Amino acid sequence: MRVEHLALDGAVIGIEAQADLSAGATATGWAIVPSLMRAHPFTICPAGHSQAFADHALSNFTAMNIVSTTDYSLKGGSLRVAEVEFPTATGGVRTLTIGAWEGRGGCLTTSLVGSAVDRLVEVFDTLRFRERARGLAIDSPITSRPRVPEVIKEVPGIGVLNIQPALPSVLERIPRTRGKATSHGELFRIRATSRALTYVSNSAVVNIDPFEETESPALMAAAQELRIEWTPARGMR
Question: In whole angstroms, what is the distance from residue 201 CA to residue 206 CA?
Fold first, then answer.
């Protein structure tokens, strides 16, 4: 089976595996926000995430206090901004403003510390992003610092794939010795005490965190046939 997902900047990540790849993927990274005049972290989730997040938060974080929730119509989609309070370990209260822009192709989320509803709306208003044929992506400049863009995908029978472009800063964490050759790349076991694997192709570096129920022979067999390519949309700053 083969699928394609978008990274934060619209780079296309092609995944081929002998597994069910129908589940969506999550893209993370940092983009330059005009209103903030600096890089800020964003996450793009599959469409419908804003409601799923709200349901999960209300049912699992009973100590969370939702101060306010406001919906806006923005850039052809719906922006939901919530101001929430969490208790801290020292007995105080931490305020966080969370925003989720929902469109047909995905859900773009981020947050700001403190009570900052108007400021967060301005973040979404000045950030350049749009829906594309394969999903949602950001057109504002994407940076590789403080964290390289990443696409995260769960694959049944294998585990969680954390996919990054094969940039020099990412490749420097790979052993200099040759890994185990596969059909489309190399495999490394970075830590002897872990079943986690690292797959390296010409354009991508993928950390494979196996599910507990995935047996080692099945994991290795699936990893041997894995093919993942990262096709850049444009250069990163």
Answer: 9
Three-class DSSP category at 96: strand
pLDDT at position 201 is 97
Which of 44-53, 100-109, 116-125: highest mean pLDDT?
A: 116-125
Per the document, the length of the chain is 237
Q: Which residues contact 73 (CB under 8 A, 6 or more apart)?
A: 79
Beta-sheet pairing, 159-165 with 150-155: antiparallel
User: What's the Cα-to-Cα distance from 38 to each of 29, 82, 86, 143, rounded to whole Å?
Assistant: 13, 23, 26, 10
Kind and range of the H or E run holding 225: helix 216-225
Q: Which residues are CB-contacts of 70 (< 8 A; sequence separation ≥ 6)?
A: 80, 81, 82, 117
Report how far residue 42's alpha carbon sits from residue 160's, in angstroms, rounded to the nearest whole number: 20
Structure token pair of residue 30? 């940092």
Helix boundaries (H) for 4-128? 49-60, 117-126
Rounded Cα distance, 208 and 171, in Å: 16
What per-residue confidence (pLDDT) applies to 62? 57
Q: Which of 177, 171, 178, 179 is nearest to 197 (CA)?
A: 179
